[in-house]
Amino acid sequence: MEYISTRGSAPALDFEGVTLAGLASDGGLYLPREWPRFSEAEIASMAGLPYAQLAARVMAPFVGDSLTQEELLALCEQAYGRFAHDAVTPLVQLNERQWLLELFHGPTLAFKDVALQLLGLLFEKFLSRRQGNLTIVGATSGDTGSAAIDAVAGREGVDIFMLHPNGRVSDVQRRQMTTVRAPNVHNIAIEGSFDDAQAMVKRMFADESMTNRFNIGAVNSINWARLMAQVVYYFYAALQFGAPGRKVAFSVPTGNFGDVFAGHVAAQMGLPIEQLIVATNVNDILHRALTSGDYSTGTVTPTATPSMDIQVSSNFERLLFDVGGRDGSAMAEQMRSFDANRSMQLTNAQRQGAAGLFASYRADQDQTSRAMQWAYQHAGEIIDPHTAVGLSAALASELDPAIPMVTLATAHPAKFCDAVERATGVRPMLPARVGDLFAREEAYTELPGNYDAVRDFVAERATPAG
Ligand SMILES: Cc1ncc(COP(=O)(O)O)c(C=O)c1O
Ligand SMILES: N[C@@H](CCOP(=O)(O)O)C(=O)O
After folding, report:
1. Is the overall model pTM greater than 0.95, yes or no?
2. What region holds the Threonine synthase N-terminal domain (predicted)?
3. ipTM score here?
4. CB of 220 sitting under 6 A from ligand 2
């Protein structure tokens, strides 16, 4: 399998290469040169497979010859063996039409674990074949950080520097990052928003004073391997509803557009997905882009769904490239203009290409609270506010009610216990597997929202490439 950059001028790489590279050297994002496609018979033959086996089958075409099938299966069994539910990502029924796909049974209680548990093992495998160290630089609005730190803490040959927006993540999210004690883990709280942190991370990939000394790697969904692993649970859910013979729709709480792009990939691979709903909070740039073609940033508004307080959605570039004609130089020009103006118009091809599969929806705080209340009163389920944004969209959908509607439940409600308690009167408890989170000591460094300060901090502590 060969991977190309959305901006057309970075070298094509194989799976091992894109996993270690993260962002492409031209500033673009890698994706497969062509989508692999399963026949209906191949999809039917996946029904009933345990999660790890299904994962190895779905991901095999993307991995190519970077791993043998046995190696890939062994990594999947190790990664998904750490989940607290036998089904890994169980489906829960809310009523005759509405379902939740619970993605939060991993070690850090959010959907990020599904991909990051595997990515930590992939890094270890690929680094063992090469000499040298990897310096991971990541940005988080709360969940990627803890999942990535859990996945790489204490691993040989890897340092991780995780930037979170100071004061804009929940207490549980912050503590899940800052109470991990391992010499290779460095937490940085920066002044500003997630977008500011993400922009600094991308800048570091383009900074030769850093890339000449360090192998900079990515754990955010700019890394293709993250998205690849997220494709699997769309298959897992759809197969239970009778795919390939029956269609299914998904409502996806969206911020950086990684999770919902994984649904797009599943559809390209032959999964019968009728619709993907991009559900946003009031930071609704994606909803505006999909309904009017206007992709313009505003200021980021802090909400009770902090992990989705994002305006610049990295993976939207992958969609625009894919549905807009796969023209790397046009995409590079469009993104240059976006970077300069903080605003761009989608082309007709991009709008029409997206309209085939995607719908969008924006939930404000009241609608989010009402969805939490609805889940509790009608189905006895306590859900987190991010999931509630998705459920609000799912409940408002006018799609054919015969098509099952699956909302991705992206986080455990206890990660956002204050917001859940305000909406439902119930305070969810943290599962025992996160241990004594509030008794442990925190360690993190506060830095200004200034690239030079972050670069110097990383450069002083990271291990050179070797
Ligand atoms: C709990 C939760 N829900 C939803 C999202 C949005 O997912 P994505 O950024 O892949 O669109 C995030 C952050 O990524 C998250 O942490
Ligand atoms: N919501 C995310 C933001 C980063 O998104 P990613 O999927 O690109 O890592 C978070 O919780 O950190």
Report:
1. yes
2. 2-80
3. 0.99
4. yes
